[in-house]
């Protein structure tokens, strides 16, 4: 687990709690995503890292740009006060995971050598929904390097059922002998 993840977790949980209490998970999710994109811009990141940064001005600019409400502005102010604005991308990702869990959804990315057809995607969604007991939002990414099979990214779990993965394991086993 990275240091950024450890630092971002309490902020993500706090943002989720405030958003849930306000009944505005979608609004906070959108504001966090926009703020995350803003602080990820190279010029903005350099400006936020400057020692002469006026934190109140930075918070005001970001909150105005993303259309955040007063509570979101206070959340940004706490981040700025603790020099945590650069963690917004990680906070946003964690907020999304908390939101998915609360809504009984799970985003799953399936990387396969060829695009899944509708029947394969439907069967994959059904099997994953049964395994995780959640509604599955499935995205398929094509990567010829997997050779065959698929690699499934579900939350923080990776299931490697690819031919490339099997060949890599076989190679590692043979190299140990």
UniProtKB/TrEMBL annotation:
Alphabetically ordered keywords of this record: ATP synthesis, Cell membrane, CF(1), Hydrogen ion transport, Ion transport, Membrane, Transport
Domain of life: Bacteria
GO molecular function: proton-transporting ATP synthase activity, rotational mechanism
Localization per Swiss-Prot or TrEMBL: Cell membrane; Membrane
Membrane topology designation: Peripheral membrane protein
Similarity-based family: Belongs to the ATPase delta chain family.
Stored PANTHER family: ATP SYNTHASE DELTA CHAIN
Protein role: F(1)F(0) ATP synthase produces ATP from ADP in the presence of a proton or sodium gradient. F-type ATPases consist of two structural domains, F(1) containing the extramembraneous catalytic core and F(0) containing the membrane proton channel, linked together by a central stalk and a peripheral stalk. During catalysis, ATP synthesis in the catalytic domain of F(1) is coupled via a rotary mechanism of the central stalk subunits to proton translocation.
Protein name: ATP synthase subunit delta
Naturally occurring in which organism (per UniProt): Marinihelvus fidelis
Annotated gene: atpH
């Amino acid at each position: 687990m990275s240091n950024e993840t450890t630092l971002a977790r309490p902020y993500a949980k706090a943002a989720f709690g405030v958003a849930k209490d306000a009944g505005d998970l979608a609004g906070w999710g959108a504001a966090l995503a926009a703020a995350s994109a803003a602080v990820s811009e190279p010029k903005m990141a350099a400006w936020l890292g400057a020692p002469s940064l006026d934190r109140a001005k930075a918070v005001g600019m970001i909150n105005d740009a993303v259309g955040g409400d007063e509570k979101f502005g206070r959340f940004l102010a706490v981040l700025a006060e603790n020099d945590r604005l650069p963690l917004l991308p990680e906070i946003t990702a964690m907020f999304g995971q908390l939101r998915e869990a609360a809504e009984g959804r799970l985003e799953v990315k399936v990387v396969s050598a060829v695009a899944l057809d509708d029947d394969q995607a439907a069967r994959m969604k059904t099997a994953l929904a049964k395994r995780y007991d959640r509604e599955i939002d499935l995205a398929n990414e094509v990567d010829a390097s997997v050779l065959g099979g698929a690699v499934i990214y579900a939350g923080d779990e990776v299931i490697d059922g690819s031919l490339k993965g099997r060949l890599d394991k076989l190679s590692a086993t043979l190299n140990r002998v």
